[in-house]
What we know:
Distance between the termini: 63 Å
Number of strands: 9
Structural class: mainly alpha
Strand order of the largest sheet: 5-6-7
Strand content: 5-15%
Order of helices and strands: EEEEEEEHHHHHHHEEHH
Oligomer: single chain
Low-confidence stretches: none
Helix content: 40-55%
Shape: globular
Mean pLDDT: 77
Number of helices: 9
Amino acid sequence: MKDEKRKHLVLFPREYETESGRIPCMEVDDTVRYLGLHFNWKGRLPVKSTVKAIDMLDNLTKAPLKPYQRLEILKEFLIPKLKFELVVGNAHRSMLKKLDRLVRDKIRTWLRLPKGTTLVFMHSKIDGHDLGIPCLETTIPLEQRAKCERLVNSGTLEVANIVQCRAVVSDIAVANVPIFVYGKPEGSKLEEEKAWREAWVKTHDGADLMNVQVDRASFYRLRNP
C-alpha cells in the first residue's frame, strides 16, 4: 500500500498455503535463493556476475598454471559457471560488455598479447585458427532469445499464463534486440560464429587464412601445447 503524501510503503504480512505446506511472509530485508538467482519482496534481484567474475579471474591468474591451462579452465569452467545466471537472470548488455573486457584483459596478460590484438583472434572458434573464447555480448543474448522462444512455444497452460506477465514480456522484448558482430546483424549461433570467422579473414593478420585448408590436428596446440 503506497502513501501518496508521506511517500511510505507499507507491507502487510500474508502467508500462503500450498499442498506441500505454508509459505512464510518475507520481511523487507529478506532474500531467498531460487534456481541460482536471488529474490526479495519486490522480485528478482540483479545478478552480480561482475564481482564473481573478477574474483574467479584473479584466482585463476594467481594459480601456478601455464597460459594454455588458464585458457582451458576459462573456457570449460569459468565462463560456463557464469552463463546460467546471465541467461536466466537476463543480464543487461552493458554488463556483458564489461565481462568481455575483463576476460580479454586477463587473456592479454596471460599470453602477453599487445593491446592492439584484434578481438576476432580471441572470439573465433579454434578451428577458425583462433582461441575460441566465447563473446558474452553476442552469445548470451542469443541464448536468452532461445530461452524466451521455448517459453512462448510451450504448450503448457501454466507457462502460457506466465508469458503474459509484464516482467516476462519485458524480458522477451530485451532478448529480441538485434545482435551485431562488427556491424553485421546475427540471428543465430551459427550466424554469429560465421560472422566472427569472416571478420577474422578480413583483418590484415588473418587475410592469408581465407582459402587455406588446414589439418584439424594442428589446432590441438591451442588446447594442449
